[in-house]
Write a structure and sequence with these properties.
By secondary structure, this protein is an all-alpha fold. It is built from 18 helices and four strands. Helix 10 packs antiparallel against helix 11 and helix 14 packs antiparallel against helix 16.
């Protein structure tokens, strides 16, 4: 037990070192993309980029207002939604379907399409038996690239709002999404090769028949998996090629793939904090950079403190185990966990996948202890800001930063400012939409499902744990996470339609609010920093930010948590 705990501590420390180290490199790369510069192979990338713009008939230098930027995203997403639904409903009549999988029902097709274009990747079906190879490639894998790229584009637009002075434009959506995708394609190619080298399948071969050790005939499902797995991890998508995600030995065969996939969850969200810090650095009148602490580092510190605290709590309660029916204390809770990864590796993945909007799993969260399972739920409830989804996690954290500045300004009777921009009433309305939309959708979705007459039939467990299964499902959908607690039958007309609508609302209302916030900030003048300006890059601000996040979370969700995991723990 002691050796296992020591290994877990060392593993977590190594994880944080690699997370921040490689995350910094991703941050530098995305800063170049933000400025419109190729990251590598300048001539080849520039030529390819120009060819794409010419084929699309767009001018990358043509700037867009917030309204036009949002309209482009809306049209792009509507087209993706309709195309996705058509393919998965008609997949039985299309090619590359070696298992002869039937088309999805209309409500499951809608839910799945809404899930993947919103970067949620919630799956109410089992991947290997629910979708053909063609659907996996041109729907899931393509949206894994595009939905993540859209989130980063919105973050770029918001950063321009902070850095521009008295301008009405916030960039060009088509140029942003093209540059992000062109960078990620070679990165994912290398990542897929690493996964293939360690045993992850990448083939068009159908399922292989084999005889199990108990003598029963079984099927081993293969397919073009590695190319989807790496991008679903890097862009915090999470939808698995197989139903059990990274607990499946062929999706996650070795300790190396487990570490690579788990780190891939958080590299880009953490790295974008470095991108933000470099982009918003203030300059003197002569153009030299002011000697002040990095603003992005302050946000990253708040995220990391919350991440480490949640990781410690989850791991401790899983190692403490659960009380068995006869009152005997077990030595650690291994139920629902892979022996290959153990309690430490499973707890780390559970916290990482719910701190970002990923949702892939390497263990069954339904089998966690009451408090151990509450931590992933609570991380999603905070709004996917630690470290959050690619792009959307950071602009969610920036909304909390603006709220913190606003509350601090009220306390001292001073107009709130952040990064040289005065925060007005319109800005705070947009902040409220970003923060409160997921809260309302989560609570209303959970309440509506609990009141359904068939609710008890959809659950594996009754009582507080059954309520936790419903609460977790809607926390996952209402925060574009996608992970499943298990034990809840989500493939029903009610859950598919309600969940699909919720995923669309919580993706696009905050996203459009962030764009209009960017437009509002970009029109404003830069306010010179004075002695009375609240410093937003020191330890005091980090503490205030964490306090505001926890207070909002406690006020919004403590009653629901009290009915579920807390009641289960007390009982």
């Amino acid at each position: 037990m002691t050796e296992s705990v020591m290994f877990t501590v060392l593993q977590d420390i190594l994880y944080l070192v690699l997370l921040l180290g490689v995350g910094y490199l991703f941050g530098k790369a995305f800063y170049k993309i933000y400025k419109g510069e190729p990251v590598f192979a300048r001539k080849a990338c520039t030529a390819t980029e120009r060819g794409i713009y010419k084929a699309m008939g767009i001018d990358p230098k043509e700037e867009m207002t917030a309204k036009k930027y949002a309209l482009c995203i809306a049209l792009f997403s509507i087209f993706s939604l309709v195309f996705f639904i058509a393919v998965v409903m008609l997949q039985a009549y299309l090619t590359w379907n070696p298992e002869n999988i039937e088309g999805m029902s209309w409500h499951l097709a809608f839910n799945t399409a809404a899930s993947f274009i919103t970067n949620t990747n919630w799956q109410a079906y089992s991947g290997e038996t629910g979708l053909s190879y063609l659907s996996q490639m041109i729907c899931l894998t393509v949206q894994n690239f595009l939905s993540g790229a859209v989130g980063i584009c919105v973050l770029f637009a918001l950063i321009r709002g902070f850095t521009r002075k008295e301008k009405r434009t916030i960039g060009n959506f088509w140029a942003d999404v093209t540059r992000v995708t062109l960078f990620m394609l070679p990165v994912c190619f290398i990542g897929a090769l690493l996964l293939i080298s360690d045993g992850v399948p990448q083939t068009m071969q159908g399922a292989v028949d084999y005889t199990a050790m108990d003598g029963t005939a079984q099927k081993l499902y293969l397919g073009p998996a590695a190319s989807q797995i790496i991008i679903k991890q890097l862009f915090t998508n999470g939808g698995g090629f197989w139903g059990v995600n990274s607990a499946y030995p062929f999706e996650n065969p070795t300790p190396f793939t487990n570490l690579l996939e788990c780190l891939s969850l958080t590299w880009i969200p953490a790295g974008l904090c470095f991108t933000f810090g470099k982009a918003v650095r203030r300059r003197n009148e002569d153009g030299t950079i002011l000697k002040e602490k990095n603003q992005g580092i302050a946000l990253l510190k708040a995220m990391t403190i919350l991440f480490v605290a949640c990781l410690v709590i989850c791991t401790v309660f899983e190692y403490a185990g659960a009380i068995s029916m006869d009152g005997v204390q077990s030595i650690g809770n291994m139920e629902g966990k892979e022996v290959r990864f153990g309690i430490g590796g499973s707890s780390l993945w559970a916290v990482a996948t719910t701190s970002v909007s990923n949702g892939s799993v390497n263990s069954m969260h339904d089998s966690y202890t009451s408090i151990g399972g509450m931590i992933p739920t609570f991380l999603m409830m905070l709004g996917e800001i630690v470290y959050g989804g690619v792009g959307c996690g950071l602009y969610g954290m920036l909304a909390f930063a603006l709220l913190t500045v606003f509350i601090s300004g009220l306390m001292v009777g001073r107009t709130p400012e952040y990064l040289g921009k005065k925060i007005g009433s319109f800005d705070m309305k947009m902040v409220c939409l970003i923060i409160l939309t997921p809260v309302l959708c989560l609570l209303l979705g959970t309440a509506g499902t609990v009141m359904m007459p068939q609710a008890s039939e959809w659950l594996t467990n009754s009582g507080p744990h059954g309520f936790s299964e419903i609460l977790y499902a809607f926390a996952s959908m209402a925060n574009n996470n996608g992970s499943a607690f298990a034990g809840f039958n989500a493939n029903t007309v009610w859950t598919n339609v309600t969940g699909g609508i919720i995923m669309l609302l919580v993706r696009f209302i905050p996203m459009f609010a962030a764009l209009f916030l960017a437009g509002s900030l970009g029109k404003k003048k830069m306010t010179p920093q004075t002695d009375g300006t609240l410093a937003t890059n020191n330890a005091m601000f980090v503490g205030l930010l964490i306090a505001v996040i926890l207070i909002i979370g406690a006020l919004s969700f403590f009653p629901a948590l009290a009915l579920g995991p807390i009641a289960e723990y007390v009982a």
